[in-house]
Amino acid sequence: MVSHVPLSLRRKIVIALDSDQLLSKSPADAGVEADMSGRFQSFKAVAWAKANIVRAQEDHVFLVTSVDSGSGSMVDGATLAMMWNSMVNDVDRHRDIQGEADEALRRLGEALRRVGVSSTVEVLAGAAGETVPRFVHAHKGEILVVQAPRRGAVASALWYSWADRCAHVAECPTVVVKESDLPDNVAVALDPPPSQQPVRE
């Protein structure tokens, strides 16, 4: 059960999730297994924050992700793949990416609510390296937890990820959670408590 401490008195924690892992893939991509793997990584990132940082009765969590239109000067491999798929796949042209991201965040918010953590969700528009730090500033975030994106060796060597930029720019302590930090058993942090049903004799 979520405590009724006013939001103004709670510590504000922002958890920023990688949209490429959070969102479902198109039919042209690697398939259902890869899709579920990405979503499970996002779930585990939230569970890790719950297990290691979030205090249920004292904190409020902002779950955010940022959907980039791809209008920036630097186009990464994921954006190129999405642009290509939108040209060759009729389904992708009509996808509501903003709506999908909002629904995915709401499901994670519901998982937090079941373990007693108050939360709100927000889908930002633009490059995450810019929108997330602005969100943290606007909402007076006190801790930022960032899910590191999946990147190839070339991309990692050539330029910073949005998570790296957040760590440098955000006006609060920032924790970047890598996939290697997330054992599968961390997911139990979001398991709902057992119901307190009276035992019948």
From TrEMBL:
<dbReference type="Pfam" id="PF00582">
    <property type="entry name" value="Usp"/>
</dbReference>
<feature type="domain" description="UspA">
    <location>
        <begin position="41"/>
        <end position="178"/>
    </location>
</feature>
<dbReference type="InterPro" id="IPR006016">
    <property type="entry name" value="UspA"/>
</dbReference>
<dbReference type="InterPro" id="IPR014729">
    <property type="entry name" value="Rossmann-like_a/b/a_fold"/>
</dbReference>
<protein>
    <recommendedName>
        <fullName>UspA domain-containing protein</fullName>
    </recommendedName>
</protein>
